[in-house]
Amino acid sequence: MDDLKARYLTQIAEAEDESALEAIRIAAVGKKGEVALRMRELGKMTPEERQAAGPALNALKDEINSALAARKAALADAALDERLRAEWLDVTLPARGRRQGTIHPISQVTEEVTAIFADMGFAVAEGPQIESDWYNFDALNIPGHHPARAEMDTFYTHRAEGDDRPPHVLRTHTSPVQIRAMQDQGAPIRVIAPGRVYRADYDMTHTPMFHQVEGMAIDRDISMANLKWVLEEFVKAFFEVDDVELRFRASHFPFTEPSAEVDIRCSWESGTLKVGEGDDWLEILGSGMMHPKVLEAGNIDPAEWQGFAFGMGIDRIAMLKYGIPDLRAFFDSDLRWLRHYGFAALDVPTLRGGLSR
Ligand code: PHE
């Protein structure tokens, strides 16, 4: 019995965790444990032997049980100590500076654009960045063989072998949101759709991901005159100048007819851009009257409704307004750049409070 006791007490003292303790408990004092086995042997003993062995076995059982309980409590204490040590926190550390992060110029300019168009009654619409090729191309009157598909340097997703459906694309422009917004809301409608777009292109003025804002207004008597007025109002508000001159250059897009690219009058004096004066012209967007087939793809009857649409590069107008020379820096996440060009979190652009401060 001394043997038994010494063996189990040692095991208990050396147990590393609760499950080890439990295994010892079962082996020692469990229903089929060693102490129970010995108790069963009492029946074969003489009454004298039994009188000595019975109480001794009971005492042994008690002793093992209390050793188990003590070891369990000690393990729990150690675990708590360890946790307190790990979760220790020095509350005397100095707090962080207040202006840790800044609003990215793209976010700021998107807010500015949204505020200006909201004032003219345009709501914001959204669509997925991974788009079906129908929404990105076909619905916009760009059928499968159309050269515009090749020109756009499209990123395609992968289809499983043997799956003949056309692959999805990373949308190459925000124009698919025209179709989705028409389908969702019908006519009349006035929306802008800012967001990310993708093309396989990379240099000073191109990054594979960039941002556009789409604009679309559909009603019973919309004309190019409305388009021109809306864009002039936008450019005046955005560049914060009273007078601007826009130049509409005949162009071609499959989804508009007629189509126009729009330039603004500007000057470059010693590398700084001034909008509204000078002898230079700067292209800022593509636009036109929505093609009847596009209205139809959006379930809107072209015999009853007309609309204009435009698409503008957000990154581009951000570069122009804030004098940022290299587009690629927008997406480098260089902290020094972000601190320099970023906006304070509370500088929310509004038409009343000023767009940029
Ligand atoms: N989707 C065109 C582009 O990405 C821009 C555009 C939009 C032109 C709407 C006309 C009308 O170049």
UniProtKB/TrEMBL annotation:
GO biological process: phenylalanyl-tRNA aminoacylation
Domain of life: Bacteria
Domain spans labelled Aminoacyl-transfer RNA synthetases class-II family profile: 107-349
GO molecular-function term, one example from the UniProt record: phenylalanine-tRNA ligase activity
Catalysis: reaction(s): tRNA(Phe) + L-phenylalanine + ATP = L-phenylalanyl-tRNA(Phe) + AMP + diphosphate + H(+)
Manner of cofactor binding, per the entry note: Binds 2 magnesium ions per tetramer.
Protein residues bound to Mg(2+): 257
Recorded GO CC terms: cytoplasm
E.C. code: 6.1.1.20
Cofactor dependence: Mg(2+)
Pfam family, one: Phe_tRNA-synt_N
Keywords: Aminoacyl-tRNA synthetase, ATP-binding, Cytoplasm, Ligase, Magnesium, Metal-binding, Nucleotide-binding, Protein biosynthesis
Annotated compartments: Cytoplasm
Primary location recorded for the protein, binned into one broad class: cytoplasm
Matches recorded under InterPro entries: aa-tRNA-synth_II, aa-tRNA-synth_II/BPL/LPL, Phe-tRNA-synth_IIc_asu, Phe-tRNA_ligase_II_N, Phe_tRNA_ligase_alpha1_bac, Phenylalanyl-tRNA_Synthase, tRNA-bd_arm
HAMAP family: Phe_tRNA_synth_alpha1
Family matches, as PANTHER family: PHENYLALANINE--TRNA LIGASE, MITOCHONDRIAL (PTHR11538:SF41), PHENYLALANYL-TRNA SYNTHETASE (PTHR11538)
Similarity remark: Belongs to the class-II aminoacyl-tRNA synthetase family. Phe-tRNA synthetase alpha subunit type 1 subfamily.
Assembly description: Tetramer of two alpha and two beta subunits.
Record protein name field: Phenylalanine--tRNA ligase alpha subunit
Species whose genome carries this gene: Roseovarius spongiae
Source organism phylogeny: Bacteria, Pseudomonadati, Pseudomonadota, Alphaproteobacteria, Rhodobacterales
Gene name as annotated: pheS
